[in-house]
Design goal:
It comes from Mucilaginibacter terrae. This is Lipoprotein. The protein is α+β, with helices and mostly antiparallel strands. Helices cover about 20% and strands about 40% of the residues. A 5-stranded antiparallel sheet has the order 3-2-1-4-5, with no helix packed on it. Strands 6-7-8-9-10 form a 5-stranded antiparallel sheet. It is elongated, with a radius of gyration of 40 Å. About 15% of the residues are buried.
C-alpha cells in the first residue's frame, strides 16, 4: 500500500507545479477620435466711403476720428493712427470695417465698433465749411461784444459724435479774479453759425436774438 501512495503524491505535485498559463485579458478601451477641421472666422467686409474729416480725439481708451458724409451725418471710427490738423476739413476716401474691441476695467467685455483701416486724401469741395479750434476762438474774439468786454477766451468743449460745435467760454478779470462773461457755441455744420449758450437753463439763442435782448 505504501508503494502505491508515493507515486500518487509525486503525480499530484507535478500537476501543481505546472499550472496552465491563462491569457491576459486586454481591458484597454479604444476610443475613436474624429478630427474636426477648424475654419478661421472671416474678417468683416470692408467698406469704402467718401467722408470729410472734422475731428480727432486721442483721450479715450481708443483713438477716435470723426467724419461727416455728404448728408452731414456723423461717423465715428476707432483708429490706430493719429489724424493730424492738416487733414481737418479735407475730403478723404475712408476704408473701415466692423471690429471686436474690449473696454478697459474690471468688467471688461467685448463689443463691436467701427475701425478705420485706411484713408487717402481726395480732391473736391468739402461737405461743410472747415473749422479748426483756432478758427472758432478767433470767430468769438472778433465779436464786437467780446472785443470790448471780455479779457479771456478759451475753448471749453470740442466736437464729438453728438456735438457739432466748439464751445467757447469768455470771461472778465478784475482784481485777479475771473468771472464768466458769456458762452458761445461755434457750429461748423450743417452750416457755420455762432450761437449764445446759457449754461443755467441749457438753452441756445442766435446772435441776433441775444443782441436784441441786451
Amino acid at each position: 500500500m505504501k508503494k502505491l501512495i508515493l507515486p500518487i503524491l509525486l503525480s499530484l505535485a507535478a500537476c501543481t507545479s505546472n499550472p496552465k498559463e491563462k491569457k491576459a485579458t486586454d481591458t484597454t478601451k479604444h476610443v475613436s477620435i474624429t478630427s474636426t477641421k477648424v475654419t478661421p472666422a472671416k474678417p468683416a467686409p470692408e467698406h469704402t466711403d467718401t467722408l470729410q474729416f472734422i475731428h480727432f480725439d486721442g483721450n479715450g481708451d481708443y483713438w477716435d476720428a470723426f467724419f461727416i458724409n455728404a448728408q452731414k451725418d456723423t461717423l465715428r471710427l476707432v483708429t490706430d493712427e493719429e489724424l493730424t490738423d492738416k487733414l481737418l476739413g479735407k475730403l478723404l476716401q475712408v476704408k473701415w470695417r466692423t471690429d471686436t474691441l474690449s473696454s478697459a476695467g474690471d468688467g471688461e467685455r467685448p463689443y463691436e465698433d467701427k475701425r478705420l483701416t485706411g484713408f487717402k486724401e481726395l480732391p473736391g469741395k468739402p461737405f461743410a465749411k472747415p473749422l479748426t479750434e483756432q478758427m472758432a476762438l478767433q470767430a468769438v474774439k472778433d465779436l464786437e461784444e467780446i472785443k470790448s468786454n471780455a479779457d479771456r477766451v478759451n475753448v471749453s468743449e470740442k466736437p464729438t459724435a453728438d456735438k457739432r460745435y466748439y464751445q467757447v467760454e469768455t470771461s472778465t478779470e478784475a482784481d485777479g479774479h475771473l468771472s464768466r462773461f458769456q458762452t458761445f457755441r461755434v457750429y461748423f455744420y450743417p452750416q457755420y453759425e455762432i450761437k449764445v449758450y446759457n449754461p443755467a437753463d441749457e438753452t441756445e439763442m442766435s446772435l441776433e436774438a441775444w443782441r436784441k435782448s441786451q
